[in-house]
Amino acid sequence: MATRSLLGAVLCVLPFLALAAGDAPSIPDTPAGTLLAAWLAAFNSGDRERVRAFDDAHMSWLTLDRAMDIRSGTGGYELLNVGKGGRLWITFSAKEKTTSVLISGKLIVLPDDLASISVLSLGPADAETDASTVSAAARDQLIDDVERLLTRLYVSPDVGQSMASTLKTEQKRGDYRDITDSLILAHRLTDELLAISHDKHIKVGFSQEIVPPDPTDLPDRRPDIAPGLQQRLKARNCGFEKVEHLAPNIGYLKLNEFAEPRVCSDTAIAAMALLADSDAVIFDLRENHGGSPRMVALLCSYLLETPTHLGDFYDRQKDTTEQSWTFPYLPGKKFVSKPVFVLTSPQTFSGAEEFSYDLKNLKRATLIGETTGGGAHIVAPHRLSDHFVIGIPFGRYISPITGTDWEGTGVEPDVKVAAADALEEALKRAREPTIGNQLNR
C-alpha cells in the first residue's frame, strides 16, 4: 500500500516538474523531495478532490477542511528556494500567491513509511530564533542523553535498549549530521523512536521557550500544578465542551480531555449533577486525547454502585504497582443501573481509552464508533536541555479483568460504525423500545 501511494505521488509530480523547468528551484530526488513536489502540485491545483486524494495517501492527520482553508487564505505557494535536506527531511522557502507573504517550510517523512509525511510546517520566514538552530555538539549531546534515559527509564527494558542502540548506530553513521534545525531534529528523533517501539506516547519535543527544570519532588509525590496550567485548564472548561439533554431524556457529555481533579473536580461534579436524572447518558470521547487517571476514576465512580477496582499502574523505575479504585465518597447523585454509551474514534487516546476499556470490561457501557488509538503507557517528561524535552513511557496499565491493556491494539468498540455516525447510532439505541420503557416510565 505504501509503495503504491508513493508511486502515485511520483506520477502526479511529473507534470509539475515539467512546468517548473525554467527558473524554478531544483527539488532533490529523495523521498522528502518527491513528497514536497507532489504536495505543492496537489495543493496549488486548488482542486478539492485532488487535495483530498493526496492528504488521504500521505498526510492522514490533516483534515480536508483545514487544508482547503489554508489554500483559500494563501492562494497556493510559489516555491522560492530549497534549503538543507536529507533523505527524510527538507527545508524550503515559498511565497503565498495571494498575499506575497514569505514563509519558511519544513517537511519530514516517516522512516518506516516513505509515503507518509509526519510533519509539514509552514511558518513566517522571520520566526526563526537562536533556539531554532542546534549546534553539532549540542545535537550529539542531546542524542546521548536520549539514549541514556531510554535505557534507564523506558517501561520495557528490551525495547528501551533497542531504541538506544538504534540511535547510537544512526548517530555514528551520520544520519543526523546535517540537521541544524531544532524542530526537525526533535521530530526526526521522535519518528525513529516511534518506528522501533510503536509507542505513541514517546516524543522528543522542542520549545522556543526555556524548558523548566525537572520536578525535584520525591518520586512518590505529585508535583504542584503550575498556575499557568491551571488557568489554561479552566479557560477550556477542563475539557468539558458540552453537557446537554437530548430528547426524550438522554444526557450527552462531550469531553475532550481528562483533566487533573485537583483543578477540575468541581467542573466534573457539576457536569455529572446535570446528567444525574437522565435515563441514559452518552460520553462523547471521539476527540479526547487522554489525561489524568484520577479524573478517569472520578467519572467512573459516578457510574458504578459499589467500590470497584479499576486497574493497576506498574512503574518500572520504582518497581511498584499502584491500584486504582473508584472514589469511596462522591458529592451528588450517582448514575447507576441506567444505560451508558461511550463514543470512540482513532483519536480517542490514552486516558480516554482507559475510561472506555474499564467500562467495557466491567460491562457498564456500550462502546460505539471506531477502534481507539492504542496508547496505554504512563508517560513523564524529562528535560534534555534549555529547549528540548522528551516524554518517556515509564509504566503500564494492567486490568484486573483481562490481565493486560490496550497498548498497540486500541480498544475495540462493541458496535462498529464510522466515528462520524457514532452519536446517531447511540441515540438510536438509547431510544430503542427496550430502553424506551425506562425512558417513558
As residue ranges, the low-confidence spans are: 1-22, 216-221, 435-441
Quote the beta fraction.
15-25%
Instruction: Return the domain count.
Output: 3
Series of secondary-structure elements, N-terminal to C-terminal: HHHHEEEEHHHEHEEHEHEEEHEEEEHH
Largest sheet: 6 strands, mixed
At CATH level 2, the architecture of the largest domain is: Alpha-Beta Complex
Which structural class matches the secondary elements?
alpha/beta
Count of alpha/pi helices? 13
General description of the model:
It is a single chain. This protein is 38% helix and 23% strand. The chain is an alpha/beta fold and 441 residues long. It folds into three domains: 2-127, Nuclear Transport Factor 2, Chain: A; 131-206, no CATH class; 227-375 and 410-439, Alpha-Beta Complex (2-enoyl-CoA Hydratase, Chain A, domain 1), CATH 3.90.226. A hairpin with a 4-residue loop joins strand 9 and strand 10. The model is unreliable at 1-22, 216-221 and 435-441 (pLDDT under 50).
Summarize this, please?
The protein is an alpha/beta fold and 441 residues long. 38% of the residues lie in helices and 23% in strands. It has helices spanning 2-19, 31-45, 48-58, 64-74, 136-153, 157-173, 182-197, 227-235, 261-275, 293-301, 351-361, 422-430, 433-439, and strands at 77-85, 89-96, 102-110, 113-124, 203-206, 240-246, 250-255, 280-284, 309-315, 320-325, 340-344, 366-369, 378-383, 388-398, 415-416.
